[in-house]
Amino acid sequence: MTSISGYRIITSPCCGTKFVAPRYASMNYSAREHWTDGQRVSSLAPTDGGLRRCECGAYFLMQNSVEIFGISEEEKQATEPAFQVIDEKLSNLLAQPLNEDIEIVVRRRYWRYLNDPYRELYRAHRKSVEDAVDEANKGATTFWRTLGGSLPGNKPPRPAAVVPPSKIFTIPPHTPTATQQENMQVLLSLLLNSEKPDPLEIAELHRELGDYGEAQKSIEKFKESEHTASRLIRKLISEKVNEPMRYRM
Ligand SMILES: [Zn+2]
User: Cα of 16 to ligand 1 centre, how many Å?
Assistant: First the structure.
């Protein structure tokens, strides 16, 4: 479970304004949906990358703030949290100069945000396929009940699933727009120049851009123990599939 054990006071790195922030005792990363681009839908843990706007108008990351101690409970209660940044404002942020670490967080969130319309198509498509399979299976059962099943002494054959859902896994095609492509390319170059680039994230960006050779090179650098997302991304690269994909943990 994600639980909060109280509140702490931090100061922004831009001008030292004090803000109140939760102190997490534990973090639960489970979510209703996980996606290969790192999006977690209805996640119990925050997904905003710690991006905040200060009172002075500058943007900062929570991980770059400084905690200050010895603050009374009264003062904590009187202190406001820093402003969160909604997804719709991300493109405005990109129109201004940002520190590289902030720009990475903004562009990563923008990447996922721009994939959201595709998620809608994907969900609708998967639901229509699953509903059709359910409907077909229901029909098969009813058919045997009314015909074969009603004949005395006749054991109806067990109705088999008409079309097993696993056999017809399809998703809608995805062609990233020019804005999506440009954002992914800039994010890639920022990540490649960053201190500790994640080969899995870089592989996923190359994959969504359709650069399967580069994606393969990057996934080969992934040396941590395999998990659901890494196995899936590896498989999608080998199949030359560029769509963001939903998966279960
Ligand atoms: Zn400030």
Answer: 6
Cα–ligand 1 centroid distance for 91 (angstroms): 20
Show Cβ contacts of residue 239 under 8 Å, excluding neighbours closer than 6 positions: none
pTM of the model: 0.86
Q: How far is the CA of 87 from the centre of ligand 1 (A)?
A: 21
Taking the C-alpha atoms of residue 163 and residue 237, their distance in angstroms, rounded to an integer, is 27
**Residue 160 has which token pair?**
């088999």
- What does each C-alpha distance from 3 to 23, 81, 231 come to in angstroms? 9, 18, 30
Angle between helices 178-192 and 100-146 (to 10 degrees): 120
* DSSP notation for 161-209: PSS-GGGG---------HHHHHHHHHHHHHHHTSSS--HHHHHHHHHHT
What does residue 53 show for φ and ψ, rounded to 5 degrees? -105, 135
- pLDDT 10s digits, 114-170: 999 999 999 999 998 888 878 877 766 665 556 555 555 555 556 665 555 556 678
Residue ranges of the domains in the chain?
3-85
